[in-house]
Amino acid sequence: VTYCNRTHKERHLRANDREFNLSFKYANNAIKTSKYNVFTFLPLNLFEQFQRLANAYFVFLLILQLIPQISSLSWFTTVVPLLLVLSITLAKDLSDDITRHKNDNHVNNRKVEVLINGELKSEKWMNVQVGDIVKLENNEFVTADLLLLSSSEPLNLIYIETAELDGLVSNRFIKYSISILYISGEVRCEPPNNRLDKFTGTLTMRGETFALDNERILLRGCTLRNTEWCFGLVVFGGPDTKLMQNSGKSVFKRTSIDHLMNVLVMFIFGFLAFMCTILSIGNAIWEYQEGNSFITFLPRADGANASLSAFLTFWSYVIILNTVVPISLYVSVEILRLGNSYFIDWDRKMYHVKSDTPAQARTTTLNEELGQIKYIFSDKTGTLTQNIMTFNRCSINGKSYGKSSKKKVDFSWNPLADPKFCFHDHKLVEVVKSGSPEVQAFFRLLALCHTVMPEEKTEGELFYQAQSPDEGALVTAARNFGFVFRSRTPETISLVEMGVPTTYELLAVLDFNNVRKRMSVIVRSPEGKLTLFCKGADTIIYERLHPSSSKLMEVTTEHLNEYAGEGLRTLALAYKDLDEDEFEKWKERHHEASTSLEDREAKLDTIYEEIEKDLLLLGASAVEDKLQDGVPQTIEQLAKADIKIWVLTGDKQETAENIGYSCNMLREEMKEIFIVAANTAEEVREELVNARKKMSPESGDEPPIEKSRLLGKKSQVVEDEKVDGEYGLVINGHSLAFALQKDMQLELLRTACMCQAVICCRVTPLQKAQVVELVKKHKKAVTLAIGDGANDVSMIKTAHIGVGISGQEGMQAVLSSDFSFAQFRYLQRLLLVHGRWSYLRMCKFLRYFFYKNFTFTFVHFWYGFFCGFSAQTVYDEWFITLYNLVYTALPVIGLSIFDQDVNDRWSFQYPQLYAPGQLNQYFSKMAFARILLHSCYSSLVLFFIPWAAMCDTVRDDGKDIADYQSFALLAQTCLLIAVSVQMGLDTYYWTAVNQFFLWGSLSVYFAVTFTMYSNGMYLIFTSSFPFIGTARNSLNQPNVWLTIFLTTILCILPVVAKRFLFIQLKPTINDKVRHKVRQAKAVPPPLPRKFPRRRISTRRSGYAFSHARGYGDLVTSGRFLRIPVKSRPALFPHTDTPVADSTPQTYRTIFEEAQSP
């Protein structure tokens, strides 16, 4: 072999030849997802933690505290909080990495049988090499990326479940049969990559070359099902497998509050430096003016002067005032987010009983962002709709059938009919029975032209496993009307036509893809007649019709328009009789194209075009994709919360538009709905500008841009423009491609953002992500993307928040999402309840946290003016250590996990409560400035009232208590009680946990204080506990308690007065609703459900195909498709539970409980 792998453009391997394959140094099959090992864990983890600014800052403080000339605080005041924070993070990261190690070891030590020197030997997965032949047995995981060689099933058919990859179950089969023991073939293929849907290569064996594509490869992550055994050749191992290549790091998402906190922490550092500078200047002045008076009994060190004293004082105050930089903030935020994530996981009202699917918060860092959503980007099929299709209407040879009577058609004459199938036009059955050739050809096409896999467990009981629900619906319709698809092999399709078994020879499948938008099969009938059957999008089929079909096309088009008004998905059906000689020549050209290694798909498309022309039209089919429960009500509810919804779908414009009306996105009362469907860039621009001018005549040509530069990043934010009334916008994929060009992006954004609802049709997955990125980049708004299929993954990852719906299209969307649930209607609960509460709680937490820390620190600042700027602390050192860790930690966490302004029912009743989150009203730079002023006022009260009260005071027995230690105790007690009362005022929703945390923390404070100030502690640790007897001497005096009472009253009086005045004069939406809650004696009553009326339109509907590549090659090679049966234990297995008795659809509509079916 002369080929060398230096270029890395191609992989070359030999079966059963380890020596040859090892020369290329391909990766073995071991995987590693863990980050650390025993030696690297501590240094690497600490290195990562100290990259956080706050942690690095506290290490810097610790170093300062070890310098005697600077430090006036003991080292433990910094070490204890820092160690606690580092330990919690260490424990969390260690737990996560141990789990990863266990998973890696579990996978790497799995056993598999490998063919070595003609014998099957059991090997660990990690020891499997590229080029080995492995044997898999039923229900075993696929070891690596394998080329399938043979299996135990007839025709070498195998079934695999690919749920870890895409949620579907496919089957794979290789036509050629080979001797496994003595195979010496060579494979040349593409290098490792992350494309799950593509594989290109060739297998050379015994002088013959076979083309390899994705359908011949078993990917790691799949599971063998319903197959006794199979053999496969390892092509990629371990980190080179497509599963591992796709497990790259996800996009790290941060909330807007995270970004704001980073800015505020930078400001706090500056503010700290400012305070320390003032105090150090004060120290220099004091030393210069007053310092000489103290030299007699406090002599200065050699060379010391006022300047050096000021310099050292600056660093001393950096240590003392460090509490303005909140080290415990980050840990508290993580605890809070984790708690709110559990509330989402545990919410029974977001649990779907039918599919046994609970809601899941897949990330714990984005909860509060759910309360700030302004734009929702939604897929249509499977997200708004059920992705369960029913065959409703059809047009055959110019006649329309379907829905002519309420009575269901009786299919008892057909023993193989599907009992679940419903149809309401008896005339069609009569025409089929009468033997009409056109009608029979129509259903024959539906029974032959597809990639469905039949399963017949018992005689006459047929089950169809289809790639898409559309195909299943059409094949089932043909079955009920007498053309039963019974079985298939790679070369044949067996039907039962009006009771007569008939077998067709399957010669070729011309597969569906996004560009072709059609699929065809070429079959030979028992009589030897060659026919091409084709179905696809009507516009595509019409271009390929023979001129003789023009009149029939006109009539069929009228029927298609009629079906569109009902929001149905349509396909046009056509056929063509072929000449034997013409087909043989075409077949040769097809074989050449299919074995090409370069541009294989483009060459195949060209070959397909040659034969798919001069077709004869048969008619059209129409299937209905029903809306999910509660979709119209959910969209109406979200619109009331001022959330704008954009639907990004691959369907045709007409279908998407009709779905838009039926789900309340587009409404008749809207002033106008603009449709952008131009074919050139200039026309698109003109239509967008005209629409914008109609909505806002005074809007200028240049967009209103607010330029900002934050932390070195430039950003252009397009401001919202005022619009009078509600508008809608519909834009197709062709126009969208022009509109997304750089010079037209902002025009699209301005026009679309003026509309209440936007529908983008015929969009690709990439365009979905581009639209989301456009809004995310140029609007000061939080975006959410929701979808259920692999084509939604890019959109879900791009948006600030991605939501996956676990539906009919596999699990890829869910695996890429931040939150997931089973039904679109749960979105309103996720946002209007959990999202709003999480945002409210986070903002309250931050406001209170900064308030208590700034108040604590400012008292130190004022004390500096009374202690000669000597950096003496106003509090006891142990109080400084425990203030944030013990005395105020749990009450604020209790507040931020359990608090709610109104309950969930009232949140639904008044969706306008959601608006403050969109406007960042609860926590912003302005709110932070108000906290700063509030803290400043409180600290003045907390310092000067106790100072004035203690200045010339004596005890009842005449002894003096105007000493530093008594003052320190009084100041810290006043502070703790004042901030605790402030938290009580901030708490809307009291629980037993809140009460326990608040009163418990105060009790712990007094218990610790009396213990630490006791004689015993002083005698044991004299230097650490100097406040001997202070607590019992001070806290038994009435005037001390009176001072505490007065200080607390003065601290909270302005807060209470302000709230009273604002509620009376300028109440917020929260104030108004809380007032109604107090007046109401019960929760709001359910309102009658409103049903959206059916809108009749003359627009044509979209074609009924899944927007993904089909499985034609798979069918012709015998590798069929099956959908997985999910086996998952019930979440609530007891049938007598409330959840089992009443499905949690109480809140699936806007205001009322859903009626039980």
TrEMBL record:
Annotated EC: 7.6.2.1
Chain spans, region Disordered: 691-711
Family, as annotated: Belongs to the cation transport ATPase (P-type) (TC 3.A.3) family. Type IV subfamily.
Species this chain originates from: Cyprinus carpio carpio
Topology in membrane: Multi-pass membrane protein
One GO CC annotation: plasma membrane
SUPFAM superfamilies documented for this protein: Calcium ATPase, transduction domain A, Calcium ATPase, transmembrane domain M, HAD-like, Metal cation-transporting ATPase, ATP-binding domain N
GO process terms (BP): Golgi organization; phospholipid translocation
Positions that bind Mg(2+): D379, T381, D788, D792
Membrane-spanning segments: 50-67, 73-91, 263-286, 306-331, 845-866, 878-898, 931-949, 969-989, 996-1020, 1040-1057
Main location: membrane
GO molecular function, one term: ATPase-coupled intramembrane lipid transporter activity
P-type ATPase N-terminal domain residues: 14-79
Keywords: ATP-binding, Magnesium, Membrane, Metal-binding, Nucleotide-binding, Translocase, Transmembrane, Transmembrane helix
Active site positions: D379
InterPro entries cross-referenced by the UniProt entry: ATPase_P-typ_cyto_dom_N (IPR023299), ATPase_P-typ_P_site (IPR018303), ATPase_P-typ_TM_dom_sf (IPR023298), ATPase_P-typ_transduc_dom_A_sf (IPR008250), HAD-like_sf (IPR036412), HAD_sf (IPR023214), P-type_ATPase_IV (IPR006539), P-type_ATPase_N (IPR032631)
Cofactors named for this entry: Mg(2+)
Residue ranges of every copy of the P-type ATPase C-terminal domain listed in the record: 814-1067
Residues that, per the record, bind ATP: D379, K380, T381, E471, F512, K535, R569, T649, G650, D651, R762, K768, N791, D792
Catalysed reactions, as listed in the record: ATP + H2O + phospholipidSide 1 = ADP + phosphate + phospholipidSide 2
Compartmental location: Membrane
Keyword RNA-binding: no
Annotated protein name in UniProt: Phospholipid-transporting ATPase
